[in-house]
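Fold this sequence, please.
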Amino acid sequence: MNGVTNPRAFLESLYAAAVKRAQPSHTLGAFMPEPPSKAGARTVVVGAGKAAGAMAQAFEQLWLERYPSAPMSGMVVTRYGHTPPTPAALIGLQAKRNKASTSANLIKIVEAAHPVPDAAGLAAAEEILQSVQGLSADDLVVCLISGGGSSLLTLPCEGLSFPEKQAINQALLMSGANIGEMNCVRKHLSRIKGGRLAAACGAARLVTLAISDVPGDDVSVIASGPTVVDETTCSDALAILSKYGIGLNAALDKALQAGALETPKALGLQANTPAQIHLIATPQQSLEAAAEVVRAAGVNAYILSDEIEGESREVAKVHAALAISTQRGRSAFKTPCVILSGGETTVTVRPRTEGQVKGKGGRAGEFCLGLAQALNGAVGIYALAADTDGIDGVEDNAGAFVMPDTLQRAVQQGLGVSEHLARNDSYRFFAGLNDLLVTGPTHTNVNDFRAIYVV
């Protein structure tokens, strides 16, 4: 029996289940490394990403529970406002540790800008790179990586000024390039991404714990793979820059043309202690967690894919067509059902016309605008699209809802779907309908979450 009485609350509960499944405190314990066995050996924890603060807290708590006397230090960088409150259990363990030691909290958490890097991120990356210098095979480096790390862990390559780095990053974000393309460029214009952090660790044992926010869970793409061998090339980076019309200074262009900025293709220094990489949370796992809640409510659940890419508004048209055909009994899906999907769509920011208001909104909101337009008021179809980090683009909402009466209410409020799509202005559209989902930072990130409830 279908137990859904409030479709909006139902959809929000699915998002909550997906986010909960990806919390570091729930997943990291199974992947904790053992400390070095040799007396005097070091354990250094580094990391970057929107979930880095939560990952650092979870790691430190587990470390103090399991290895209370083992030395450990480190630093991670996360987005401004994305450091969660320190759990009471961790505070207690820190106090106990401090009675026996003069050391402060073991892992320092700093904050920096995302998606366009700032000076705080630059300083953090410098400190992180310096912290792994001079280690031996007796030492351990743990790298905590999650989505957003590409912007937060920023160290421009030789010949690239920091303002130029910021401008290239901004241009990539507005170009419609997918995450793999953006991170290919970022790797080749960096002193820390694309395996360079791993190379700096030398012979130390290296363990990377990652939360995936990329289609296909490619660890070399997550946060631009600072500890992972990179298979892309300088030529690939040049082709992407050319594709989207993004220019470089002459010296940098020449360096890429000559292959002088190539990323490490092997980490030979670690031949005797190979790097370990563990995915502690993935988009698919979160979609499956949401599907469990759907089925518990007596509703059919179908997961399309966790790897969907493409323009948000175009992806929305495909989802709308599937939802309508399902409702009409023309698909393999049986109603009532929820159609779930994830991945990372893109938004190509349209040039503004003279006097046009600058649009506000992200991928999830743009998807919802396109979906509302394509559904055209279809009765019995409800949807939620949201970013699992709690921030859609750079606004304060996670995403938005689409209801059967969305277009009707929009007309009453004088809000035009086409006009808002034309200026990439999903935030104002759904704010005007009180249909934004606002959660605040979730302290994790497994990328896009979409749920369409078809009655």
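The radius of gyration is 23 Å. The chain has two domains: 7-18+283-454, 23-155+190-229+264-281.
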